[in-house]
Design a protein that fits this description.
Immunoglobulin-like, globular, eight-stranded mixed sheet
Length: 975
Amino acid sequence: MTLLRSSSSSPFALLHLHFPTALTSKPQAHFPPSRRPTTSSPSPSSPQRRRCFSSRPKPLLSRPLHAPPLLRCSASSMSAESSPAPSQLKDSLVYSRAYWVSESIIAWNVDVGINGSLYLFASKNASLSLMEGEDAGLQGHDVKVKLEEDSHGLPQNVIEKFPHIRDYRAFNVPPGLDVKGLLKSQLAVAAFDFDGKCSSITGLQLPGVLDELFSYSGPLGAVYSSEAISLFLWAPTAQTVRACIYKDSSVGSPLEIVQLEETNGVWSTKGSKSWDGCYYMYEISVYHPSTLQIVKCLANDPYARGLSANGSRTLFVNLDSDILKPVGWDKLADEKPDILSFSDISIYELHVRDFSASDYTVSNEFRGGYLAFTLQNSAGVRHLRKLSDAGITHLHLLPTFQFAGVDDEKEKWKSVDTEILEKFSPDSAEQQALITAIQNDDGYNWGYNPVFWGVPKGSYASNPNGSCRIVEFRRMVQALNHIGLRVVLDVVYNHLHGSGPFDENSILDKIVPGYYLRRNTDGFIEHSTCVNNTASEHFMVERLILDDLLHWVVDYKVDGFRFDLMGHIMKRTMMKAKYAICSLTKEGDGVDGSSVYIYGEGWDFGEVAKNGRGINASQFNLFGTRIGSFNDRIRDAILGGSPFGHPLQQGFITGLLLQPNDHDHGTAAGEMLAASKDHIQVGMAANLRDFVLTNCEGKEVKGSEVTTYDRSPVGYASHPTETVNYVSAHDNETLFDIISLKTPMGISVDERCRINHLATSIIALSQGIPFFHSGDEMLRSKSLDRDSYNSGDWFNRLDFTYNSNNWGVGLPPKEKNEKSWPLIKPRLADPLFKTQRSHILSTVENFSDLLRIRYSSPLFRLRTENAVQERVRFHNTGSSSIPGVIVMSIEDGHEGLPGFSQLDPIYSYIVVIINARPTEVSFTSPTLRARTLVLHPVQLMSTDQVVKASTYDASTGCFAVPSRTTSVFVEPRKF
């Protein structure tokens, strides 16, 4: 079946026939090694460090606008025997502790007692208030309905949808009630004791009943036909909806105001084709629980496909119009770089502005924007082409949707003269002071502040108004595909930047208040992702996510998605997304959906931890899905500690035991080094749960039996493409910076450069999907900034001319780094830490060599779990192994000989030796003796003279590998 293609279409009618509610039989939970098992700790790629601040800070409300400072009563403790005084009930309506979970059931954790009673109250004009005195109760209601407790409790389907209230009591709503009408009112339930006194009052959370009565799979947004433009808005709790049509992008009165008509919760109207190119907003009258009032909100369309600057208004735009398509756009699906298997993917992560903002080979009007990627001869594009030629397949772009934190209108930006900044010393605090003074008014932010998921960010376009951003985004995708790179979008469906009826960045919470954002048991918005967590367990939230993904694939022809905090999204949603995208075809949709790769952050924390809101898309729950998740275990083992531990904690490559720094690692450094080696080996075997290896104690164990400090399994994947191996990303310090922190201060910059290369070699030569942060291959520095989300171009600079790696541009911003300044300052001040152009050039070449080695043999990119298990072996294992050395072999079959099949026509056997020691190492293996192994041709031809000194003696099976070197030996079939 071909899915509908327009922005108004939905895959839901198809999807809900094929996917059960529960996709695993045994829920599991896992805390990554870098996360302490607490709901308040930040994740390994923590939004709590990077996304809580925008260029226009607003108070983040954890309670509704009129919530009291303290909880005055606990509904769960109320009973007929302990009735509260009226003053304790006074503020209870600001809470929503009861749940209307289905048309016939309200759930509440309250005991009304044997002779007590419970009533539902409704007020269309939001006039509910508490009566004082002996007869305390609610007044101002239009409807009062008695509810009877159901002794059977909540039904199983409700518990599956709302597991966090599984122990709540169930109260039956009498049949015949106009439930749909009541849902447009202010609602409350109140319990009364045996003598009629009110014991407890609260508002209600409505997503359950809204899903049951109003789930909808029809058109939404602005839908174009040959004769009209129609509008469709899902807003079942709204009392009235009007569309205000404007000629201008931000000023002027409406050309017309159109009243929309409602049919079963969907408001719609048919308008003139003359609306095309105009702008619109919705005026919605709706009860908002944060105000306890009926409010009139102005909101943009959640299904917006175009915007004015800063999302002031929604643009009427037909994405199928030929004038919005670059030349050859409709043929792009046939011109994309080949990708035969997801195992062949390697990913390079890049921020749109970082790419060209500091590239003086790019004309000023293109810097920092989409069109910089379309230039053929800029330094940045030449570098990307070099990486593509070496083997990088996918370019992962940090958020490119419309986000808050950067004004779309460039003329409003503030900046600091770089000539002034360059005059200060490398360890000065002056640079960061000047940068942070204007950081909320410059052109820089990572973009994890989502406002509109479905529209490209306006600040990256030549003109943020009109359709310019659409055309330029398409040109960017097309240009990148033409130089051999597929495009991955960083999507942030786990939270929204705005909420409430008055925030200019609030959209969804204005249209259906209390539905799109996940709330706690008191009715307040959850903020574990930083702010305004979304609730994909609700039908129309899930639908919006799926429709948005399909929109980006079909209308922008993107090739993959990286999900931010994917663990906060339900596994069911991710599986539906994968299925819906995979169903897209060139013939029916203009794209091959089966070639779109999906991966993300599978951290398990907050209110969703341990499947607290349903089976979530966390690392362990993704077993068997073919959806990738970041492997933080290999990162922490390679570097040492975690992003939240002591910054000097060393790891496998940074000197643990073998070249200690000034940090006290205790007496267990040897055990820590051995354990980190086990973690890396499991990671190099694609982090497979059932991969068998010999651990540091000499025991044969599975990947899942190798455990972290908190006894969590290291291996969790079922397939190589479920593991995304990485050692650095945009979060935390860059690879070169973290190495500069953790290694002893006395070593040379040459050695640090080799360690940088050593880290990337482990990732590049591992099974699974390798992931690299932009600049890893150029010794990129952010002057030791641990969180550069809002640190401006100065600290985030990339130099594709290879003249500087940006080390020593001042102390990093005080807000996130001040506690580490005593460690940072002496390093930045020491000239021996600074790299030269020769270091950068060598690192770029060595990185390219690694990619060429990876793509020289399919043995580095095995496609199944069985292939990894059969062909990959680790030597130098057990208690007598040489510390700091990993030896991996990959064996191929031979045509016409029994055993496993032949995959590589060139090499029959590969040995990878990783020597993290500060000295040369010799390793002899009887298993590898008498093989016809030679150093890989790429390394024989390398500009790295050190690796060329690697040797193998077939008569003894002895390998000699220089210090801090990864050597690859191959057995050519011609021998």
